[in-house]
Task: structure prediction
Amino acid sequence: MTTDQWYDLPQGEREFWIADWELDRAACAQCGGDPETCGDSTQSWFPQRSVCFTTMERAAAHARYQALHEELPFHDGTFTNWAEGRSALHPYRFDEGVNVWVAPVDMTPGDKFLTDAYAPASAEQ
Result:
Protein backbone atom coordinates (compact mmCIF):
# COMPACT_ATOMS: atom_id res chain seq x y z
CA MET A 1 0.00 0.00 0.00
CA THR A 2 1.40 3.37 -0.99
CA THR A 3 1.28 6.45 1.19
CA ASP A 4 -1.38 7.94 -1.09
CA GLN A 5 -3.57 4.84 -0.73
CA TRP A 6 -3.09 4.94 3.05
CA TYR A 7 -4.49 8.44 3.27
CA ASP A 8 -7.44 7.48 1.05
CA LEU A 9 -8.73 5.11 3.75
CA PRO A 10 -11.58 6.33 5.93
CA GLN A 11 -10.37 7.75 9.25
CA GLY A 12 -11.77 4.84 11.31
CA GLU A 13 -10.11 2.23 9.14
CA ARG A 14 -6.83 4.14 9.15
CA GLU A 15 -6.92 4.28 12.97
CA PHE A 16 -7.63 0.55 13.12
CA TRP A 17 -4.64 -0.31 10.92
CA ILE A 18 -2.36 2.06 12.84
CA ALA A 19 -3.42 0.49 16.16
CA ASP A 20 -2.92 -3.00 14.71
CA TRP A 21 0.56 -2.06 13.48
CA GLU A 22 1.45 -0.55 16.87
CA LEU A 23 0.33 -3.73 18.68
CA ASP A 24 2.41 -5.88 16.35
CA ARG A 25 5.41 -3.59 16.73
CA ALA A 26 5.12 -3.54 20.53
CA ALA A 27 4.86 -7.34 20.86
CA CYS A 28 7.77 -9.44 22.06
CA ALA A 29 9.71 -10.72 19.04
CA GLN A 30 10.12 -14.13 20.68
CA CYS A 31 6.74 -15.04 22.18
CA GLY A 32 4.45 -12.38 20.69
CA GLY A 33 3.29 -11.29 24.14
CA ASP A 34 3.58 -8.09 26.12
CA PRO A 35 7.31 -7.36 26.68
CA GLU A 36 6.58 -6.01 30.15
CA THR A 37 5.08 -9.34 31.16
CA CYS A 38 7.48 -11.74 29.45
CA GLY A 39 10.47 -9.62 30.46
CA ASP A 40 9.51 -9.61 34.14
CA SER A 41 11.94 -11.90 36.01
CA THR A 42 9.58 -12.05 38.99
CA GLN A 43 6.74 -13.45 36.89
CA SER A 44 6.23 -17.21 37.35
CA TRP A 45 5.81 -19.33 34.24
CA PHE A 46 4.50 -22.88 34.20
CA PRO A 47 5.33 -25.23 31.38
CA GLN A 48 2.23 -26.37 29.55
CA ARG A 49 1.58 -28.63 26.65
CA SER A 50 -0.94 -28.25 23.90
CA VAL A 51 -1.10 -30.86 21.22
CA CYS A 52 -1.90 -30.07 17.62
CA PHE A 53 -2.54 -33.45 16.07
CA THR A 54 -2.58 -31.90 12.62
CA THR A 55 0.99 -30.63 13.05
CA MET A 56 2.04 -33.91 14.65
CA GLU A 57 0.72 -35.95 11.71
CA ARG A 58 2.30 -33.55 9.19
CA ALA A 59 5.69 -33.86 10.94
CA ALA A 60 5.44 -37.65 10.96
CA ALA A 61 4.55 -37.68 7.25
CA HIS A 62 7.45 -35.35 6.47
CA ALA A 63 9.85 -37.61 8.43
CA ARG A 64 8.66 -40.66 6.46
CA TYR A 65 9.06 -38.78 3.17
CA GLN A 66 12.56 -37.65 4.17
CA ALA A 67 13.61 -41.18 5.20
CA LEU A 68 12.35 -42.55 1.87
CA HIS A 69 14.74 -40.24 0.00
CA GLU A 70 17.86 -40.47 2.19
CA GLU A 71 19.99 -42.37 -0.32
CA LEU A 72 18.85 -40.65 -3.52
CA PRO A 73 17.64 -37.16 -2.55
CA PHE A 74 17.75 -35.41 -5.97
CA HIS A 75 15.38 -35.77 -8.94
CA ASP A 76 14.96 -34.47 -12.48
CA GLY A 77 11.63 -32.73 -11.93
CA THR A 78 9.47 -35.76 -12.67
CA PHE A 79 9.90 -37.38 -9.23
CA THR A 80 10.66 -40.63 -11.09
CA ASN A 81 14.38 -40.30 -11.92
CA TRP A 82 16.61 -39.93 -8.84
CA ALA A 83 20.31 -39.39 -8.09
CA GLU A 84 22.66 -39.25 -5.13
CA GLY A 85 23.86 -35.70 -5.78
CA ARG A 86 22.63 -32.46 -7.30
CA SER A 87 23.55 -32.07 -10.97
CA ALA A 88 22.31 -30.41 -14.14
CA LEU A 89 20.19 -33.50 -14.82
CA HIS A 90 18.96 -33.82 -11.21
CA PRO A 91 18.78 -30.24 -9.89
CA TYR A 92 15.91 -30.72 -7.43
CA ARG A 93 16.14 -32.07 -3.90
CA PHE A 94 13.23 -34.31 -2.89
CA ASP A 95 11.70 -31.68 -0.58
CA GLU A 96 12.21 -28.59 -2.73
CA GLY A 97 8.80 -27.37 -3.82
CA VAL A 98 7.08 -30.06 -1.76
CA ASN A 99 4.84 -29.11 1.14
CA VAL A 100 3.90 -32.04 3.36
CA TRP A 101 0.63 -31.24 5.09
CA VAL A 102 -2.47 -32.93 6.40
CA ALA A 103 -6.19 -32.57 5.80
CA PRO A 104 -9.26 -34.08 7.43
CA VAL A 105 -9.93 -36.13 4.26
CA ASP A 106 -7.60 -37.82 1.75
CA MET A 107 -7.46 -35.26 -1.04
CA THR A 108 -5.14 -37.43 -3.22
CA PRO A 109 -5.87 -41.08 -2.39
CA GLY A 110 -3.67 -42.40 -5.20
CA ASP A 111 -0.56 -40.45 -4.21
CA LYS A 112 1.95 -42.88 -2.72
CA PHE A 113 4.61 -40.25 -1.98
CA LEU A 114 5.25 -41.67 1.52
CA THR A 115 5.78 -45.26 0.39
CA ASP A 116 7.09 -45.06 -3.20
CA ALA A 117 10.22 -43.00 -3.82
CA TYR A 118 9.34 -42.94 -7.52
CA ALA A 119 5.75 -41.76 -7.12
CA PRO A 120 5.04 -38.98 -9.61
CA ALA A 121 4.26 -35.48 -8.33
CA SER A 122 0.55 -35.99 -8.94
CA ALA A 123 -1.50 -39.15 -8.51
CA GLU A 124 -3.02 -38.49 -11.95
CA GLN A 125 0.36 -38.71 -13.72
In short: The first helix runs from residue 3 to 8. Strands lie at 74-75, 82-83, 92-93.
